[in-house]
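REQUEST FORM: STRUCTURE PREDICTION
Request ID: SP-0412
Submitted by: Lab K.M.
Chain count: 1
Length (residues): 279
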Amino acid sequence: MTSSADLYCVMGNPVAHSRSPAIHARFAELTGQTLAYERRLVPMDGFVQGVRDFMAEGGRGCNITVPFKIEAPRLATHCSERVQLAGAANVLTFGADGSIHADNTDGLGLVADITRNAGVSLAGRDVLLLGAGGAAAGALGPLLRAGVRHITVANRTLARAQTLVQSHAALALLQNTELLALEPQALEADFDVIINATASSLTGADVPVAAHVLRPGSLACDLMYGPAAQGFLDWAKAHGAVPRDGLGMLVEQAAEAFLLWRGVRPPSAQVLAEMLRAA
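STATUS: Completed
RESULT:
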């Protein structure tokens, strides 16, 4: 156990809904670590200053949420291979010498939740990834490495989807995975797994894709959780898919961040089960 409480936070806008403080507090309790973890709301144009202020207060690391995941790597003195590939980071670690290490645990958390918690194998599956922002960018590399057969990235701004696909083309070739970019209205196929990584649930917008993309029994995942995800989950269930919100991914990506910061892997499955029972 550490001799004093190290300071961590989740930083974003909005951030009041985040359950990360409760998750990390429980991780610390179960692993015998002493830390303090809080929410930090920063202005839309104040991310850089927010990070600097947090470091000046002695912060050891922070999770980054919307809309700053793509901005976060620009502050780093070192970026992990995952960040270099995605162009986005959701974890910053601050060194005593003022250095900043950026990493991305989003995709690791998503794959772990789908394969371990939901019990759905991704090997050989057809996947639709909705969105091309920071969340989608973090998810794409680990999805490719999970052995999927095909991934379509669909985004309303096609150029952003094409840029994301191009940055992952070499990995897709290595994994022997088909990788395409389309606009949502151009989708004709159906998929085994649909992942909503857009901001539609957060903003209360309509589901950004037609129901024909769903197969009977498809797994339909929204990266949001709680009330924000309910519209997408209801839509998926109404069309014969298996709905899943982003709580499991949140816990699993937090576990990866906790491991980076503390050198200890927390019991993520136990914490997720506790949270689901308490819901």
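NOTES: The first strand starts at residue 6 and ends at 12.
Reviewed by: T.R.
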